Each structure stands twice: as C-alpha cells, then as structure tokens.
C-alpha cells in the first residue's frame, strides 16, 4: 500500500519532521512501527511488573495483574475468556531464565542482542558487571522512570552481535542529536544535580560491562554523554497491561443493559481501588527508539497520537483529524491537562523537558498573551510536571 507518511528535513533549527504522503482520514492508523531497540524500566521489572523481555507484552493474566495491583489474591474477574494472555506460549532463556511471550520473541532477542547480554548463571550475582551497572542506574533514577541504561546496553550489544555493524551504527545515528550544551541539559534532567559524577560512574561501569573497540567513541566521556542524550531525547515511553486489554475486550462485549451497567460499575470500582493501592503505576513500562515516531514534532494542537493497542512494543500512530497529503503530522509531548494551560506554562514544560520553544499555530495565536501564569496554574506547577509527563509517555 506504500507508507502514508515519510520523514523530511525541515531546517537545522527544527531538524526532521513527519509528513503525510497521502490524505489520511480521522481515526485512521497512519503507521504501525516496531522499535529499533527497546527495554523495560529497571524498577518496573524489580517490582514484578512481568513483561516479555523482548517486546514488553504483559505476561500476567488480567486477573493476576489486578490481584497484584490491588494486593488482594482473592479477586476474581468476570469474563476471564476476554483475557488475551497465552501462558502456554511463554518461553524462558535456558541459560538465564528471562521470560519471553513466545518462541519468536526469544529467537528475535537472541539474534539481535541477547547473546552478549545473557547473564547465564550469574543472573543473581551482584558483582557481575552488568548487574553492577543496573544497580547503579536504579540508585540514580527512581520512579517515575523515564529511561533505562539497558536501552543503551542493548544498542551496544546489537552492534556487537551484528554482522553488518556499520548498518546498525548508521541506524542509531539517524536519531536527532543535540549540541554538547543541550546534551548536558538532557543528562542533568535525567540524573539531577550530581549528574557529572554520576555520568562518569555509569560510563566506567558501562565500559567494564560492554566495551567494544568498534564503538570506542561511545565509551569516551563525550560519546557516552551523546549516547545518553540520544536515549533521553528520543526514547518513547511504552506501556502495556493485560488488565487494560481485558477492559477493552469487555467494553466491546454485546451485553444486555443491566449486565453492561454491572460490568462497567465493577470496572470503575476496580480502578478506584487499584489507584488507592498502587497509585498511577498500572502498566509494564519501558522505552524504545522508533525511527519514524522520533521524527514527529510537537504541537499543542496535535493531529495524531501514539498508543500501544497490541499490548506489546508495536507503536500505532493514529490520526486525530483529517490530514491532507503534504501536511506535517504532529503529536503532543504534553498531556491533555498541560495542553489547556497558558502558552507560558506549556513552553516552560517543553523547554525544561525537551529543550525547545513551541511555535505551533496555537502558540503563535497566543504570542501576545502576557507571559504570566494564572495563580491557580502557579500552584499546580512544580511537582506535578514530571508525573503528568510520565502519564503522557506511557498511556496505553
């Protein structure tokens, strides 16, 4: 059918953008994209959010998922047949026991990066270089998580295993790069005020665990900072959940009115109870690098949005409006609440988190508005920004 969108260079200031190659109707899927590399977040995995080590598909049944999030093992979900998890297909790596949702994922991981990263019997050995690296990362980057050092480790392992190393190095180099000053800002944002010392510690552990002479530049202080910033700038949050899959399937059931009302009430209450117990951490979460999605620029009035409806790392970009051939396709880096705030507030968040000032039609139309935030906005600012961004990144 040919792709409905293509990346084009716009300007050195904006970099690349994504443009429609044909007319796209509202609600249509613009594309489905698989990441070049992806990885579950480390705290997320530590807290028993069980996901396929390759594609991040949730591995618990919807009922097990709900029981764990509720802290209540007696919970029974109605309509268990609406759960899509197939435990009979799950497989483990025979050497290190990480779990995959299928033979295909185990094979894909093995062929791309797992030979280098398989810990074998050292899986629980705290002195193994890879375990030391992960422990150091967890101690620097607490939930809500936005990135993982293992995404970078998988990039290195992919190149190490590849027959055509240059092809992969080129694939990674097409992700937008920043100037050294901007890179430093990204790293500072990810690691906090002690970032210089922490980055150097991570670099030494990263080198001990993964050094490869083909990639020697990635292990120098400048190269490592660039790699770090690349992942920090381009990483797209991925969220999967067998419970939300089950809810979507239940929503689609054709039920008599009374049963429908009962089921809806049950689901609403379930989510309220889970929120009390687990807060906003509902999903298996990780991040990935997506070639096309990373070309999508931000707009405060986006015409497309990303989601993960297949309960794995396959990213769907869906049109929110009719988009004409030649028109730029934009997503929003802000969540719904943030988009409703003043231009000043929106740009404050975008500058802090993404290092740019927005000039979308909405921001241009509000350019003459006073550069002050209203009082209630001031109060709402500060603490909530990261959590809100987090939600936006990983919404399923």
UniProtKB/TrEMBL annotation:
Keywords: Cytoplasm, Metal-binding, Methyltransferase, S-adenosyl-L-methionine, Transferase, Zinc, Zinc-finger
Main location: cytoplasm
EC assignment: 2.1.1.359, 2.1.1.372
The protein's enzyme class: transferase
Pfam families with a match to the protein in the record: SET
GO molecular function, a single term: zinc ion binding
Source organism, top-level taxon: Eukaryota
Region Disordered: start-end pairs: 370-396
GO cellular component: cytoplasm
CDD domains, alphabetized: SET_SMYD5
An example Gene Ontology biological process: methylation
UniProt cross-references to SUPFAM superfamilies, sorted A to Z: SET domain
Localization per Swiss-Prot or TrEMBL: Cytoplasm
Entry keyword annotation includes DNA-binding: no
SET domain ranges (all copies): 5-334
Name of this chain's protein: Protein-lysine N-trimethyltransferase SMYD5
Species annotation: Spheniscus mendiculus
The encoding gene: SMYD5
């Amino acid at each position: 059918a040919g792709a409905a969108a293509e990346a084009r260079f716009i300007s050195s200031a904006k970099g690349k953008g994504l443009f429609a190659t044909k007319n796209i109707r509202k609600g249509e899927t613009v594309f489905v994209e698989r990441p070049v590399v992806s990885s579950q977040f480390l705290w997320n995995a530590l807290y028993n959010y069980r996901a396929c080590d390759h594609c991040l598909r949730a591995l618990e049944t919807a009922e097990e998922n709900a029981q764990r999030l509720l802290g209540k093992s007696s919970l029974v979900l109605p309509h268990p047949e609406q759960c899509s998890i197939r435990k009979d297909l799950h497989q483990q790596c025979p050497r290190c026991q990480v779990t995959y949702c299928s033979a295909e994922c185990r094979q894909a991981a093995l062929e791309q990066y797992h030979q280098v990263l398989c810990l074998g019997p050292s899986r629980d050995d705290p002195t193994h270089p890879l375990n030391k690296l992960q422990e150091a990362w967890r101690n620097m980057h607490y939930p809500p998580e936005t990135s993982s050092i293992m995404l970078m480790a998988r990039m290195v392992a992919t190149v190490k295993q590849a027959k055509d190393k240059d092809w992969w190095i080129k694939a990674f180099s097409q992700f937008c790069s920043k100037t050294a000053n901007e890179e430093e800002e990204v790293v500072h944002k990810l690691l906090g005020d002690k970032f210089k010392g922490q980055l150097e510690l991570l670099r030494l552990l990263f080198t001990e665990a993964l050094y490869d002479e083909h990639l020697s530049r990635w292990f120098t202080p400048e190269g490592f900072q660039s790699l770090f910033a690349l992942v920090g700038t381009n990483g797209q949050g991925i969220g999967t959940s067998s419970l939300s899959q089950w809810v979507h399937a239940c929503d689609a059931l054709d039920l008599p009115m009374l049963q429908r009302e009962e089921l809806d009430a049950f689901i609403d209450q379930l989510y309220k109870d889970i929120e009390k117990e687990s807060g906003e951490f509902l999903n298996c979460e990780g991040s990935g690098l997506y070639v096309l999605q990373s070309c999508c620029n931000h707009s405060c009035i986006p015409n497309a949005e990303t989601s993960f409806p297949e309960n794995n790392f396959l990213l769907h970009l869906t049109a929110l409006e009719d988009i004409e051939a030649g028109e730029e396709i934009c997503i929003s880096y802000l969540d719904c609440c943030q988009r409703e705030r003043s231009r000043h507030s929106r740009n404050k968040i975008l500058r802090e988190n993404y290092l740019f000032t927005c000039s979308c039609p909405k921001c241009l139309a509000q350019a003459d508005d006073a550069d002050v935030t209203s009082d209630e906005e001031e109060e709402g600012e500060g603490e909530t920004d990261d959590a809100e961004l987090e939600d936006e990144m990983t919404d399923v």
